[in-house]
Amino acid sequence: MTLREPLRVITYLAPSIPERFFRVIADHLGELLGNEVELIVEGRRSGPLPGDDPFEHDEADLGFMCAPSLLLLRAVDNPSVELLPVAPVWADERTGGRPVYFSDVVVRADSNIDSFEGLRGRTWTYNDDRSLSGWHSALQRLREVPAGSEFFAKTVASGSHLESLRLVAEGAIDAAAIDSNVLIMERAQYQEHRTRLSVIESWGPFPIQPAVVRASLHYEIKTQIAEHLSDLHTSVAAAALDWIPFERFAPITYDDYLSSSAVVEGARMMSENTRP
């Protein structure tokens, strides 16, 4: 079965996860589905809310987003999305080959900060308030320390993990929690991130950012997308991904996200913050 119109793929994870990664996915699906594919990059936030949901308005068919948004989009009557039952596995020995990732807390290597407690009264940056690894994981960690809401002297929304890394590396901000896969890629590409930055704490594992499909998309197309992504690592297209630590797409379930307290609590907080 083929679509009558272009397959619209949207990612909320670029630029931190490079746009090129999603372009390879889009091209791979377009070739195997025999369909034109449009890639949409939404770089301002890590995921949609029910009020700005492109799937509800038939503006997207396949999407990549941070996990709290998945729970929010599914928590309404007649949800606009379904979880695609496969998700990326990245080359990080901590994952054990599972579709999970971590939040790595980075500081400048030449600072005197060697623990999370050492960040009390310091400055903190995060990519955006819909991000699990950059924001909600930090809020979960702060619940473990006294006076969590007053722990940092200042918090700054940077707009992306890449910008958070730059701010910490240049000494403008003391620390940030970074998507572990972003940090792996940046350290591989840039010498200064290997020498200037230290990881003082890691949180997780968390279920990897989900892929979702529009609920009203034809069942056969949904099935084909999942199958084609599962085969991506053995396809010709895999050669175009040899520059990043991507391994494969592996099975994942909605229960994997519901069983993560950080994902559930992140979705709850996002929901409360958007109520009129």
The name of the CATH superfamily of the largest domain reads Periplasmic binding protein-like II
Number of helix segments? 9
How many structural domains does the protein architecture include?
2
Mean pLDDT: 93
Number of beta-strand segments: 12
Spatial ordering of strands, largest sheet: 2-1-3-11-4
- Write down the CATH topology of the largest domain: D-Maltodextrin-Binding Protein, domain 2
Fraction of residues in helices? 25-40%
Terminal residue distance: 42 Å
Instruction: Kindly report the oligomeric state of this protein.
Output: single chain
Low-confidence stretches: none
- Architecture of the largest domain, CATH level 2? 3-Layer(aba) Sandwich
Q: Could you say which overall geometry the principal axes of the C-alpha atoms support?
A: globular
The secondary-structure class comes to: alpha/beta
